[in-house]
Design goal:
Layout (H helix, E strand, L loop, with lengths): L1 E3 L3 H11 L6 E3 L2 H8 L7 E3 L8 H10 L6 E5 L4 H9 L4 E4 L4 H15 L7 E4 L2 E4 L4 E4 L2 E3 L3 H12 L5 E2 H8 L10 H14 L7 E4 L3 E4 L3
Parallel strand pairs: 1-2, 1-3, 3-4, 4-5
Antiparallel strand pairs: 6-7, 7-8, 8-9, 10-12, 11-12
């Protein structure tokens, strides 16, 4: 989750609230928000409209022009109908007016994540014979339950969620290990190698393609 808010106290409160359920990054101005959003590693963005530099509407416009479909929830004191319409027309997914109730914010986020999730209603994410049960944190291949470390599980899940899309090493690193990790982006190659070894028995190892100089892509094309 990415939270963008220029009021430091409110930002800290929202981060504290959402950290109960999500991994949360934050930004306090439009330029930093755009940079982080462009990494395309977030499941949703909570975005203030009135920001230093680029405002929230400009950030949203730039994000959508780059083809990034991350759900955006505007959180702002601007409650005019024209502002709501503008935000939604620019590509926003929801619009919450300050002051707001914590439970409402969490419920709106959960609803958007349900709508945008590639998983089916039974919490199963599928790629060919691979099934990831997000509720049980379990992976099956051709009906056989396999043992994966947390990072291996998260990596395979991320690849399947982005089937047929190129993911840079940096995107994978930021998503799985996080910006503040003590390790380096080279760890991505190590885990890709481990994942291929686990999938080789089922002939899925070659579906994880290396895109030279960029990153990786899961595809059977």
């Amino acid at each position: 989750m990415l939270v963008v808010e220029d009021n430091t106290y409110l930002l800290q409160e929202i981060v504290r609230l959402l950290s109960e359920e999500y991994t949360v990054d934050s930004a306090e101005d439009g330029d930093e928000a755009l940079y982080l959003a462009e990494q395309n590693i977030y499941d949703a963005i909570v975005l203030d409209v009135m920001l230093p530099g680029m405002d929230g509407f400009e950030v949203t416009d730039q994000i959508r022009k780059k083809g990034i479909a991350t759900p955006i929830i505007f959180l702002t004191a601007r409650d005019a109908v024209d502002d709501r319409v503008k935000g939604l027309n620019l590509g926003g997914d929801d619009y919450i007016v300050k002051p707001f109730q914590n439970m409402e914010l969490k419920a709106r986020i959960a609803a958007i994540l349900r709508r945008s999730s590639p998983m089916e209603r039974d919490h199963i994410l599928r790629y060919k014979g691979i099934e990831i049960d997000n509720k049980r944190k379990q992976i099956k291949i051709n009906g056989e339950i396999l043992s994966f470390t947390t990072k291996q599980y998260n990596l395979l899940e991320y690849l399947i969620q982005n089937e047929d899309q190129i993911l840079t090493r940096e995107q994978i690193f930021d998503r799985i290990w996080g910006f503040d990790s003590d390790t380096t982006v080279g760890i991505v190659e190590v885990y890709i190698h481990q994942l291929r070894k686990k999938l080789k028995k089922y002939a899925y190892d070659e579906d994880i393609r290396t895109v030279r100089g960029i990153g990786y892509m899961l595809t059977d094309k």
